[in-house]
Write a structure and sequence with these properties.
The complex is a heterodimer of chains A (265) and B (411).
Chain A (H helix, E strand, L loop, with lengths): L1 H10 L1 H15 L8 H21 L12 H29 L1 H6 L6 H27 L11 H25 L2 H16 L14 H6 L2 H14 L5 H32 L1
Helix pairs in contact in A: 2-6, 3-4, 3-6, 4-6, 4-7, 4-8, 4-10, 7-8, 7-10, 7-11
Chain B lengths: L3 E13 L2 H9 L7 E14 L4 E5 L6 H9 L6 E6 L3 E4 L12 H11 L4 H15 L14 H12 L6 E5 L7 H17 L2 E5 L3 H7 L2 E6 L2 E6 L1 H13 L7 E4 L5 E5 L4 E10 L7 E3 L3 E10 L3 E12 L4 E6 L7 E4 L4 E9 L5 E10 L8 E14 L26
Parallel strand pairs in B: 3-7, 3-8, 5-6, 6-7, 13-20
Antiparallel strand pairs in B: 1-2, 1-4, 8-9, 10-11, 11-20, 12-14, 14-18, 15-16, 15-17, 15-19, 19-20
Helix pairs in contact in B: 3-4, 3-5, 4-5
Chain lengths: 265, 411
């Protein structure tokens, strides 16, 4: 099964990459600054967080004195959460949004989530590069420890993709799923130590937060970029297994319902 | 390449009482199904060889589009099998699934990629696509600014940029203007000659008759009839003209053709003859010879208004000439039950050689769509021979003369 899917993706790689490119181009088609907006947006976000939290509110992380420590902590969690959120949110509407194409053209439908994921990765890599430039400029770059972020990202993308495809297929049949995912994402965001750190929470809540699969991932990024530490792989492992499991379920569900999706659109 | 084999094909849509019963069925894998199967297509079987062209006709909701979608591969069959050898290009409804925010060029590239072409191949074909679509500078504007005709032009140009082994066209051609329709039919015809298997859905009788060598009539999800386009279309026409529920009769004629009779039956054609100038029956007619078409009609019931029309069609079913007593300003009014009327149409047979058939219609108004007392296809057959006039080609004798002036080179 996975071989046939891989082959379909390979055969249609031209279409997938072309679609990613076209989507990127069309987003800024009628704008004067064009692709500059892709850079300006994360830049604005980083600036706002730095100015508000580091300069105005003087928020400091326990044990870290650098003026930018908290804003680095915040960005490490926020930017990667953004990738997770984008894959999940776009994934859940991917079949509905492309209904027109699905009904009229015959191509491997699995290309559509692939386009969504690659698109999100492109956006993320732009945002993340800005973040890296910011780290270099503020002399907060963690050095080679930063490469540890790559396997963590892989785990996160797998987790998000699995969830996204499951939500995408279910959403075709039960539109409630789309609404539910949007609400869920809000709770999930605040249930993940992104804006705060787990240590600041009451002792009774801490074990609960640790059950959240996004917690080890967020902690890993924060560890890498703020404390220059290797991630706690023991905590990341279960998420990797969960992500792989979700991807498998997603593919099975997708295979089983792919035909019905067209009938339902 | 281009073979199509369809065996016992069927499509059912699942209908649930509500979202909750769907959820229940999904969650509980065992237990009775909670949906009703709604069959929109059943028992469809046919076989097309390479280079054959089939037209599919039928009223709305007969299942034509669903059938084409399954052949194109977008809709999955519920049962049965489809075997297609070769590359399939399909135009289902409008626009080929264009993305409204992308430009025409981007969409053309995307469409080409989905047809299995590489970017280099598409780039090579692009000038040809642009030239054929004739949408000018719109090619670089977003597709949402296109008219439906322009979308269709582009879609057709992309789908047919390279000759596919199988071409599937669903009504799309009816959107374009007559110029583009003509152009696209030319292209379809060229493809056919080169060996492309063709499947089209169209309400355009002419299109099906000129392009197809086979037709399928679909009704309520099943194949009602398969055969020569002329016969199938006659039957379909008769079916459409009366939703007044009476039987349609088809009688085989001596030469393998079929005569179709339909109508509500308040009046009927008793007899029809074609005679020459001396009143003798004319099976063979000389080019230009004066002939008369005699028809006897009887009313079964009181009829307020009656129009008799006739139409001469050639071997392929193309209409050569048709007229009726409404257009000749002689409708009959207030016929009594049992009353008969004899009609005599006189005309010179200025036709090309070949065989022709005459169809008759008895209706209330100009068109038989409104009220069709009787419609009789292939009521009469005759042959035109040419032993007296110059040996011309074509279907009508225009009796051209020629005057030639020669201009020798001076000096």
């Amino acid at each position: 099964m996975s071989i046939s899917i891989a082959r379909a993706l390979w055969t249609y790689r031209g279409f997938i990459l072309g679609s990613v490119k076209r989507e990127f181009q069309s987003r800024y088609r009628n704008s004067l600054l064009g692709a500059a907006w892709t850079v300006l947006q994360p830049l604005a976000m980083i600036t706002v967080y730095t100015v508000v939290f580091s300069e105005l509110m003087r928020t400091r992380l326990a044990g870290m004195d650098g003026p930018y420590a908290y804003s680095v902590y915040l960005c490490a969690g926020l930017l990667t959460w953004g990738l997770f959120g984008e894959i999940l949110q776009r994934g859940q509407t991917v079949f509905l949004d492309n209904g027109n194409m699905i009904k009229k053209l015959n191509f491997p439908r699995i290309c559509l989530p692939a386009i969504t994921v690659i698109n999100a990765l492109v956006n993320f890599s732009i945002t993340f590069s800005i973040f890296l430039v910011f780290l270099l400029l503020t002399h907060s770059f963690p050095g080679w420890v930063f490469l540890y972020a790559l396997p963590v990202l892989l785990v996160q993308v797998a987790f998000a993709t699995g969830l996204g495809i499951i939500a995408g297929v279910l959403n075709v049949f039960f539109r409630d799923v789309g609404q539910f995912v949007n609400i869920l994402l809000q709770f999930w965001f605040w249930f993940t130590p992104i804006v705060y750190s787990t240590a600041t929470l009451p002792k009774s809540v801490q074990p609960l937060i640790k059950l959240n699969p996004m917690t080890p991932l967020a902690n890993a990024y924060q560890g890498i970029f703020v404390y220059r530490q290797e991630p706690d792989w023991h905590a990341v492992w279960p998420v990797a297994v969960l992500g792989a499991g979700l991807c498998l379920i997603a593919l099975l569900l997708f295979r089983r319902r792919a035909g019905e999706i067209v009938d339902e659109l | 390449m281009g073979d199509i084999r369809v065996d016992g094909l069927g499509k059912a849509y699942k209908q649930y009482a509500g979202q909750w019963s769907r959820l229940a069925e999904w969650i509980m894998p065992v237990g009775k199904p909670r949906h009703i199967e709604h069959w929109v297509l059943k028992d469809i079987s046919f076989h097309l060889k390479e280079g054959e062209a089939v037209g599919i006709v039928g009223s709305n909701g007969a299942g034509k589009s669903t059938l084409l979608k399954m052949l194109a591969g977008t809709v999955r069959p519920s049962c049965g099998e489809i075997t297609i050898r070769g590359r399939v290009a399909a135009m289902l409804e409008l626009g080929m699934g264009f993305h409204p925010d992308f430009t025409g060029r981007q969409n053309a590239v995307m469409g080409g990629q989905l047809l299995g072409l590489s970017v280099e191949e598409i780039m090579q074909l692009m000038p040809e696509i642009e030239a054929f679509a004739e949408i000018g500078e719109y090619i670089d504007r977003p597709v949402r600014t296109y008219s439906s005709g322009m979308q269709m032009r582009l879609a057709f140009s992309v789908a047919t940029a390279q000759r596919p082994d199988v071409l599937i066209v669903d009504e799309a051609l009816s959107v374009g203007d007559s110029y583009f329709q003509h152009k696209s039919f030319e292209r379809i015809r060229t493809f056919r000659q080169a060996g492309t298997t063709l499947l089209i859905v169209s309400h355009d009788r002419y299109a099906i008759q000129t392009v197809c060598d086979h037709a399928i009539l679909m009704e309520a999800g099943r194949i009602r009839m398969q055969g020569l386009p002329v016969e199938v279309l006659d039957y379909y026409n008769a079916m459409m003209a009366e939703r007044d529920h009476q039987a349609i009769r088809q009688m085989p004629l001596g030469d393998g053709r079929v005569a179709t009779i339909s109508g509500t039956g308040e009046a009927y054609i008793v007899d029809v003859q074609l005679v020459d100038g001396n009143g003798r029956l004319a099976g063979n007619v000389e080019v230009g010879q004066p002939v008369r078409l005699l028809a006897t009609v009887r009313a079964r019931e009181a009829i307020p208004r009656m129009v008799l029309g006739f139409m001469i069609t050639d071997r392929l079913g193309h209409c050569i000439y048709g007229i009726n007593t409404h257009r000749l300003d002689q409708p009959l009014e207030d016929l009594q039950p049992g009353e008969e009327a004899t009609y005599c149409f006189s005309f010179p047979a200025r036709l090309g050689k070949g065989s022709y058939s005459v169809s008759l219609s008895l209706s209330r108004e100009d068109s038989h769509i409104d009220k069709n007392y009787e419609w009789r296809d292939n009521a009469l057959m005759f042959h035109v021979v040419n032993t007296r006039q110059e040996n011309f080609v074509g279907c009508s004798w225009l009796d051209a003369s020629v005057e030639i002036t020669r201009h020798p080179r001076s000096g």
